[in-house]
Amino acid sequence: MSASIDQVFAKQFQSEVHDAYQRMGSKLRPTVRSKSGVRGSSTLFPIVGRGVAASKARNGTVPVMNLAHSQVECFLSDYYAGDWIDRLDELKTNINERQVVANAGAYALGRKTDELIIQALDTAPNQAVGTAPGTGDADGLTRAKVLLAFEMLGAADVPDDGERFAIVGWKQWSQLLQIQEFANTQYVGDEDLPWKGTQAKRWLGATWMPHSGLTLNSGKRFCYFYHKTAVGHAVAQEVTSDITWHGDHAAFFVNNMMSQGATLIDPAGVVRMPAAE
Question: Out of the domains of life, which is the source (predicted)?
Answer without folding.
Answer: Bacteria
